[in-house]
Amino acid sequence: MQKICIVFDRLRAEEKLLQAKASEMGYETSMIDAKTTRFDTDSKRTENDFGDVVLERCISYYRGLNFTACLEFLDIPVINSFDVANRCGNKMITSMLLKKHNIPTPKTYFSFSAESAMEHFEKVGYPLVIKPIVGSWGRSVMPIKDKDTADAIIENRQVTDGPQDRIYYLQEMIDRPPRDIRVITIGDQTVAAMYRKSSGGFKTNIALGAEPEICKITNEIEDLCIKASKAVGGGILGIDLMEDKKSGLVVHEVNNTVEFKGLVKVAEKDIPKEMIDFAVNYTRK
Ligand SMILES: Nc1ncnc2c1ncn2[C@@H]1O[C@H](COP(=O)(O)OP(=O)(O)O)[C@@H](O)[C@H]1O
Ligand SMILES: [Mg+2]
């Protein structure tokens, strides 16, 4: 019987659900707070017992990503892998991979200075959506409808001047209903989906108060999500889609550490069970 380790930095409902399910299924579990661990290059041993497979569930993207690198250094199987976490954590890389794999995705523009970003705005026109390349919960995702707003945002980025502020990720604004679709994929299966209905604002993140509503997984949704999962390298993922009134479904994001506490209440499939099954099989590869 394998031992499953869950690494976290703040214990959420999701991590507790995973632990409870693994125990219920008869697996030994260990819960490790990433903030209390240490690694070094000299030994392949650690003070922690990471078991046979780790589910990396840190909220902090950079902490989780680099923690994953440490686990891979120790040859411990971890879900998701460093490469997958890196591809999903960076929206620019995700957009490129989706496009390369012929998955419908919003047209996106990249530039690396205020001047070049302004040229994009002028050439492409408004509205556009600006996003930090690393971020979640809708933070700093902003619709830009005119030049005054573009000027203000660019000026502000020059004042704050963080490493991400120099990378401009601009995206066509999709004309869609006030909702999007979140699908959880595990390996090559779609296990659950929900609409996220905006509570009034532009963004449809649950973290911003959007209402979850169960969504039927059509063949088209399934096909797109499995392709998107493969495009980033597979694992346990949250795929976000929008319903473009002109062109149909587009995939705009793939999330690496998917939250599911809302979805678990309405989904037909047992999400934590599917995740634990996947983790167990992962060690057998
Ligand atoms: N190109 C777009 N057109 C219309 N709405 C968008 C677009 N991009 C993002 N949104 C809205 O903003 C939300 C947050 O954007 P997203 O790229 O998913 O960033 P985050 O990683 O912060 O969730 C989306 O769920 C959607 O509601
Ligand atoms: Mg999102």
Annotate the secondary structure layout:
Elements: E1 3-8, H1 13-24, E2 28-33, E3 53-56, H2 61-73, E4 78-79, H3 82-89, H4 91-100, E5 108-111, H5 114-124, E6 128-131, E7 142-144, H6 147-160, E8 168-172, E9 179-186, E10 189-197, E11 211-214, H7 219-232, E12 236-244, E13 248-255, H8 263-266, H9 271-284
Parallel strand pairs: 1-2, 1-3, 3-4
Antiparallel strand pairs: 5-8, 6-7, 6-8, 9-10, 9-12, 10-11, 12-13
Helix pairs in contact: 1-9, 2-3, 3-4, 5-6
The structure holds adenosine-5'-diphosphate (ADP) and magnesium ion (MG).
Adenosine-5'-diphosphate binds at residues 106, 129, 131, 135-139, 141, 171-174, 180, 203-205, 240, 252-253.
Descriptive tags:
single chain; 285 residues; alpha+beta; Rossmann fold; Dna Ligase, domain 1; D-amino Acid Aminotransferase, Chain A, domain 1; 3 domains; 5-stranded antiparallel β-sheet; 4-stranded parallel β-sheet; 9 helices; 13 strands; 35% helix; 25% strand; globular; binds adenosine-5'-diphosphate; binds magnesium ion
